[in-house]
Amino acid sequence: MRDVTPKHIRAPFGAYSHGILTGPVERLLVTSGQLGIAPDDTVPEDAGAQAELCFASIGAILAEGGLGPSDVIRINAFVTERAHFPAYMAARDAWLGGIHPLPASTLVIVGGFTRPEFKVEVEVTAAA
After folding, report:
1. Which residues are within 8 A (CB) of 77 and not within 5 positions of it... i.e. 6 or more apart?
2. pLDDT per residue rounded down to tens, the chain (128 residues)
């Protein structure tokens, strides 16, 4: 994989790549959106804690498929308020742990999720 960020466009706002180019792909794993809910059905109030749970679930899904964070080529994330951006991005950046190249990433503000206590949802695409 390699980062595709043309020098003549604005650099990314955060820890992500504008594009990721991969060679031939043997395995492709696409996750469903993961919500900030623990195995015991508890949902933290804090958006950052919810984002950490989202990434923990994604990590488990990737591991089950024989992949890891360094195989992620795209992250799509959704938050219910602009105020949740910093907490989400801190959780994302910690989960990525300095991998290179960074995946492509999109973050969108949405009106809500299936239950009102959910503040963050994250899905990824990984390739190896």
Report:
1. 51, 54, 88, 92, 105, 106, 107, 108, 120, 121, 122, 123
2. 899 989 999 999 888 999 999 999 999 999 999 999 999 999 999 999 999 999 999 999 999 999 999 999 999 999 999 999 999 999 999 999 989 999 999 999 999 999 999 999 999 999 99
Which residue has tokens 């919500």?
35
Residues, the chain: 128
Q: How far is CA 44 from CA 24, 74, 120, in A?
A: 40, 25, 11
CA 103 to chain centre: 9
Nearest to 77 by CA among 31, 123, 36, 42: 123
Domains delineated in the chain: 2-127 (3.30.1330.40)
Residue of 26, 30, 10, 28 whose CA lies nearest to 18? 10
Local structure of residue 38 (DSSP, 8 states) = -
| Beta-strand pair 104-109/28-30 | unpaired
